Automatic annotation (TrEMBL):
Residue intervals of the RNA-binding protein Tab2-like N-terminal domain: 3-102
Domain RNA-binding protein Tab2/Atab2 C-terminal: 118-273
Domain of life, per lineage: Bacteria
Name of the protein in question: Tab2/Atab2 family RNA-binding protein
Organism: Zarconia navalis LEGE 11467
Coiled-coil intervals, chain numbering: none
Molecular function terms from GO: RNA binding
One of the Pfam families matching this protein, by short name: Tab2-like_N
């Protein structure tokens, strides 16, 4: 499958008529190739973007990946024009690397505006509570040995997300290394909870200390959800262990939803890593 990571957004540059300039960047994930084109703001629409995608290669990609919410509608519309699938994902490392390098070059370019510009920053709203009707019976910090993670790919789990890039073996992690995570016993709400999680696309889980402490689920492109809050000292100690293990696991962790504590059935499993 041919996949391009793409961005199409205004930059801190202006053309001869003082119009903001937009930049199209496309990175071929497999080949490592990069395509760049400039567009005046008056022409920045899905038709121009579709035409540029066609010019960029003899063969159109099968999928476009993007991380910037502000360009979602344009990329989605251009994808529809060309029959290319589109995926919103925070995991566009090559593209983000290119954008950061480009940002260091802009001040040396003609018509640089000098305005504040953060190349991969996006607006993130404040976290909101998980809908009350989805809250399971209980939750806890947990861990699995790295060597046991891949076994979840063979279990009969209705909803599962285990990207190849996040498998412990592919990250070079020792099989005995504890991988931290959060386990939720959903009870009768398990199926409803995992369907909701599947829709919002979990990315990572963060522990936030405070009064009370909490765990925040990052999902989709910018969404943030309060999974739980707590003031218990034992739970806070487990949270500290969770944080320490994240430092050893390259940020790899998991979210597990199960209907009960039997250890026999699971409703959902996600491998996660900050992006």
């Amino acid at each position: 499958m041919k996949v391009w990571q793409v961005d199409f957004y205004r930059r801190p540059l202006r053309d001869e008529t003082n119009q903001p300039l937009w930049e199209f960047v496309a990175c071929d994930r497999a080949e490592g190739s990069i395509q760049i084109a400039w567009c005046p703001q008056s022409n920045a629409n899905d038709r121009w973007l579709a035409q540029q995608l066609q010019r960029s290669s003899d063969r159109l990609p099968d999928r476009l990946e993007f991380f910037r919410p502000e360009c979602e509608s344009l990329i989605a519309a251009a994808g529809r024009r060309l029959g290319i699938s589109v995926e919103a994902t925070r995991r566009t490392p090559l593209l983000k690397q290119v954008l950061q390098q480009r940002a260091r070059e802009y001040p040396q370019m003609p018509h640089y505006s000098g305005e504040d510009y953060q190349p991969i920053s996006v607006y993130r709203p404040a976290p909101v509570p998980v809908p009350e009707q989805l809250i399971g019976e209980r939750w806890q910090f947990a861990s699995l040995n790295a060597g046991d993670i891949e076994g979840f790919g063979d279990r009969p789990i209705p909803v599962r997300s285990m990207p190849q890039s996040l498998l412990p073996f592919n990250l070079g992690l020792a099989s005995t290394l504890p991988i931290p995570g959060v386990a939720i016993v959903g009870g009768r709400k398990s199926r409803q909870l995992v369907r909701w999680l599947q829709d919002i696309r979990p990315v990572s889980i963060h522990y936030i200390s405070g009064e009370p402490d909490g765990i925040i689920l990052e999902a989709g492109l910018v969404d943030r959800w309060v999974l739980a809050t707590f003031a218990d000292r034992e739970v806070a100690a487990a949270a500290q262990t969770y944080q320490q293990r994240l430092g050893s696991s390259q940020g790899l962790h998991f979210l597990l939803v199960r209907p009960d504590d039997s250890g026999m059935t699971y409703s959902g499993f996600w491998l996660l890593q900050p992006a």
